[in-house]
Amino acid sequence: MTKFYHTDLWGSREDKDRYLQEHDITTVEWTEIFPKSPLYLFAPQDQDLRLEYDPGWQINKIFPINTLGFQSHRDDFAIAYSQEQLQQRLQEFRDTRFSDEEIRSKYALKDNRDWSLTKARQRIRQIQDWKRWLIKFFYRPFDLRSCYFSTIAMDYPRVIFQQHFTEENIFLNVVRQTKADDWRHAFVANTPTPALYVELKDGSNAFPLYLYPDIANQQSQLFVEKSPNLSSDFITAIREKLGYVPTPEAIFYYIYAIFHSPTYRDRYAKFLKSDFPRVPLTSSDHLFKDLGTKGQALVELHLMKSKKLNKLITKMGGNGDNAVTEVTYKPTEQRVYINGDRYFEGIAPEVWEFKIGGYQVLDKWLKDRKKAKRTLSFDDVLHYQKVVVALKETRQIMQEIDQLIPGFPIE
After folding, report:
1. Pairing state of beta strands 315-317 and 328-330?
2. How many whole angstroms separate alpha carbon 81 and alpha carbon 86?
C-alpha cells in the first residue's frame, strides 16, 4: 500500500538553502500523512478535529441553489457611486447622437466573446423600461453603490440573482476556499453581490434564503409564492435534532451566528480554508434560539437596518472640505484623516483594524473613494459613522456568541 509523508521548512531563503544542502531524502524528518476523501490533502491535519468538524452540514447542502457573485468585466462603466451618475452614463450610451467609437473611447469599452458594444447599444434602445435594472447593491461589505444589472452592461449578472433578488430576500455570501491566514469570509447582503464581495483573491458564492418563480420562463405555475432554499435532507436533519422545523429566517440567523463565533473560526481554520464551511447542528432548542437572536442582531447591523446605528460614537473634526486625498489612521488620537485637515475621531484601533473577508472595512471604504477622487457628502459621512458603530457592535456580539456556546463539538 502506498504511503505518504510530509515535512515543513520555514525560515529565510538562506536558511532553507543551507538545510537542503546539508540533508537528503534519508535524513529529513518526515511525518506520515493519510490523505482522505473528498479533498485528499497532502498536509498533516488534526484527525480528531476532522472527525468533529465533518458531521456538520456543508452550506451548499443546506442551501442547494447558489451562484458565484456577478462579474461585470467593466466596473468603471456598469457601476457608479450614485444612481444619477449611472443614469446619465446610460442615457449617453442610448443616445444615437454619439457614435460607437465616441462611446467606446469615452468609457474605455472593449468587445469580448460575450459582449458587443454595438449590439448592447441597439438592445438598450429597444427596451422601454430600461431604467428598471438601475439598482443599488452592496459592492463590498457596507459599501452601497449603483449598477446597471443587465447583460447590456455586464458579462455575467447571474440568472439566480435576477430571478431571486427582491426586497424580501437575503443572501449569505461565503467563499469556497481562501488563501487568507484567517477565516472571516461570511457576510450577508439583501442585494446581488459581485464575485469579489468578501475577498479580492477568492470569489464568493451567494446563497439565497428564498426562491421565487421564474415568471420570465413561464415557470410560475410550479409555485406562485416564494419557497425556502432549504434541502429536504437538511429539513429532515434539523427536525430530528430539534423536534420541529424552525422558520427559514431562524435557520439563517443560527447559521450566521455560528459563522461569527471566534472559537469556530479558529478551531476549524484549516478546514474552513479548503472548502465550503460546515454548520454543526444543536439538539438544544434553547441554544438554537439564543444563537439565532445574536445572528439576527448581526444581520440587522450588516444590512444597516439596526437601530443601534443611530447612536453614533464618532464625530467629524477639522477644517476644510471632505475631499478624500489621504487615508491616515493615528491610533493614539483614534482618528483617521481623509485629508490634511479633516478627520473622523473616536475610532478605536481594534475597530479600525477589523476585517471582513479580505477587506479592512474602514480603510477600504475610504481608499476606494480616494482613488475615485470623491468628496464625501453629508450622507457619506453619516454612513461611515454608522459603519463604525456596526463594526464595534459586531465585535461585541461575536464575543457574546462564544459565551453562549458551552463548547465544541456543539451538542
Report:
1. unpaired
2. 8
Distance CA 130, CA 406 (A): 53
All cell numbers assigned to 411: 451538542
Cα 344 to chain centroid, rounded: 25
Answer for the pair 229, 64: CB distance below 8 angstroms, yes or no: yes
Q: Which of 294, 289, 290, 291 lies closest to 306 in space, CA to CA? A: 294
The pLDDT tens digits of the residues spanning 200-248 come to 888 999 999 999 887 555 544 555 588 999 999 999 999 999 999 999 9
| Number of neighbouring beta carbons within 10 Å of residue 373 | 9
pTM tops 0.85: yes
d(CA 242, CA 371): 51
CB 160 within 8 A of CB 132: no
Name the 3-class secondary structure at 206: strand
Characterize the bridge pairing of strands 204-208 and 171-175: antiparallel
When pLDDT is averaged across residues 259-274 and rounded to a whole number, the result is 96
Instruction: Give the model's pLDDT for residue 125.
Output: 96
Q: Of 197, 189, 141, nearest to 166 (Cα)? A: 189
CA 319, CA 343: separation in Å to the nearest integer?
9
Cell numbers linked to 149: 444589472
Cα 389 to Cα 308: distance, rounded to the nearest angstrom: 8
CA–CA separation, 191 and 141 (whole Å): 11
Cell of 324: 478624500
In sequence order, the 6+-apart residues with CB closer than 8 A to the CB of 399 are 262
Are 70 and 156 in contact by the 8 Å Cβ rule? The answer is yes
The SS3 call for residue 38 is coil
Residue 216 grid cell:
420570465
Q: Are 237 and 281 in contact (CB under 8 A)?
A: yes
Residues in contact with 255: Cβ distance below 8 Å, sequence separation at least 6, in sequence order: 59, 62, 172, 279, 295
> For 147-225, where are the alpha helices, taking DSSP H only?
159-164
Q: Do 188 and 302 form a contact (C-beta atoms < 8 A)? A: yes
Q: How far apart are CA 196 and CA 194, in angstroms?
A: 5
Secondary structure class of 328 (helix, strand, coil): strand
| Angle value at C-alpha 61, between 139 and 272, nearest 5 degrees | 65
Residues in contact with 378: Cβ distance below 8 Å, sequence separation at least 6, in sequence order: none
Three cell numbers at 130?
A: 430600461
